[in-house]
């Protein structure tokens, strides 16, 4: 009886379900919402750090191409395993979003280290030169997709272990309807996970200045301080202090602290 139930459940998501009309519709909705998340992230950046649209496109397009490669790879791999392709797809996806994210981070940091050591600025993620170079962007896109390929090879080797068959038997068992199962696998879970993953990966890929004093000036665009006035005037007033004055005052304070 148990075997019959499991076999019946295996038929919930058929081989062609991921690439059917409903499957492609869910994938289009997912891609649109994920892309919207990256646009929202740009507007959440402080105004003085917000990337120009061209630089933002260069950064996020790498994620878009990499995600497309991973998504199509997962669909292809899921159709090659025996059983419900939806369960194999979600297992691949969750591993990509956890183990894969760690590999991506290590790969990006290693690439940036090599780029600085060898002075290969074209492969330094987030650096495009001035003016921004299309050649550097293409080099980084190719390198990022190569990194995605390495991730996919490692994940494919990991899912060869036999215990994933047991995981597959119950991971989506509560969803008896194929369309519901597709919506959970192709939209609901990926939307939540992709929103977090895209946000984090975008931080990996974007350029960050190492000049601390410039960052200090940027974060202190406008400052206010209370100045005590004579009694015949108001008790206090607010005066603007320029960024340079605040920085100089901070330096003098540090120097006096060292001397004392």
From TrEMBL:
InterPro entries: STIMATE/YPL162C (IPR022127). It comes from the Eukaryota. Signal peptide: none annotated. GO terms for cellular component: membrane. Keywords: Membrane, Transmembrane, Transmembrane helix. The keyword Transmembrane helix applies. The chain crosses the membrane at residues 24-44, 88-108, 141-161, 181-200. It holds the Pfam family STIMATE. The keyword Nucleotide-binding does not apply. This is Store-operated calcium entry regulator STIMATE. It comes from Homalodisca liturata.
């Amino acid at each position: 009886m148990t075997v019959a139930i499991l076999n019946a459940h295996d038929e919930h998501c058929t081989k062609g379900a991921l690439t059917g009309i409903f499957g492609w519709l869910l994938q289009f909705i997912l891609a649109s919402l994920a892309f919207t998340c990256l646009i929202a992230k740009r507007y959440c950046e402080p105004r003085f750090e917000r990337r120009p649209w061209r630089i933002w496109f260069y950064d996020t397009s790498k994620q878009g191409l990499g995600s497309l490669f991973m998504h199509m790879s997962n669909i292809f791999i899921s159709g090659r395993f025996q059983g419900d392709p939806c369960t194999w797809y979600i297992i691949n996806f969750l591993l990509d979003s956890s183990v894969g994210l760690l590999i991506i981070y290590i790969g990006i940091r290693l690439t940036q280290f090599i780029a600085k050591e060898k002075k290969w600025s074209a492969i330094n993620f987030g650096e495009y030169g001035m003016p921004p170079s299309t050649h550097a962007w293409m080099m980084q896109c190719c390198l990022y997709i190569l990194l995605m390929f390495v991730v996919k090879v490692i994940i494919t080797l990991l899912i060869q272990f036999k215990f994933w068959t047991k995981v597959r038997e119950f991971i989506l068992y509560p969803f008896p309807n194929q369309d519901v199962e597709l919506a959970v696998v192709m939209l609901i879970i990926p939307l939540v996970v992709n929103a977090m993953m895209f946000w984090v990966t975008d931080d990996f890929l974007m350029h960050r200045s190492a000049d601390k004093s410039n960052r200090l000036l940027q974060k202190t665009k406008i400052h206010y301080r209370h100045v005590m006035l004579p009694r015949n005037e108001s008790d206090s007033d607010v005066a603007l202090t320029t960024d340079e004055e605040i920085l100089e005052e901070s330096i003098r304070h540090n120097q006096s602290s060292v001397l004392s």
